[in-house]
Design brief:
The protein is of the alpha+beta class and 239 residues long. It folds into two domains: 42-129, no CATH class; 142-230. It has four helices and 13 strands. Strands 1, 2, 3, 4, 5, 6, 7, 8, 9, 10, 11, 12 and 13 form a 13-stranded antiparallel β-sheet that branches.
Length: 239
Amino acid sequence: MKRFFLASLVVAVASVHGVKAQLTARQVLDNAISFHDPHGNWAGLNTSFEVVMTTPEKPKRTSTISVDFPHNVFILDVEQGDDTYTYKIKDGSCEISLNGSDEISEEDAKKFRLDCNRGTFMKDYYTYLYGLPMKLKDPGTHLDPKVQKKTFKGKEYLVLNVTYDAEVGSDEWYFYFDPNTFAMEVYQFYHDESKNDGEYILLQGIEEINGIKMPKTRAWYVNKDNTYLGTDTLEKISK
């Protein structure tokens, strides 16, 4: 009886691992989304959160991001050193202010890189990174059907390879998911993978924003030589 039980257990465990190994890329993505956004809140998100960026040899930068997706509103308030600037983007319109004033000199606009193209870029940047892995279902995203297994920093992951339509983006991305929980723990991009350029980003901790599990910290490194670039830390805004 004991031998039969043990044999059955081995078969059961092997079956579980076999099923996991046979998951399609779409199934891995769906499981990851179920982990990070179990209630499907991303599309209707209306909230604010704070991101503190620390970079070697540069002053700390604090960004307050406010989104109201149902009304197509994105507001970015940035504080760095003694200066603050704001982008407000709504339905294609763009408003910019610097230190509380919308009258910005050409010199200051160049110094702080303040223009509406930059504002749109920042909107896309923040909503993409904090919207992962849900954003991998956006139009123009191409998910390789093959699920890869890779070991990164000593841990084995299920890895999805993603490319984009030219008008969306030209980089090639890899997303690393814990094989048991499907939590996203690493992502990596290349401009040209044959040159080992681009960066990888290590995700640690969880901050829950409106029921969505977002990475608490994101630490950025260069693929080629592991140079550390900086860390973003996500904070809830108390209301």
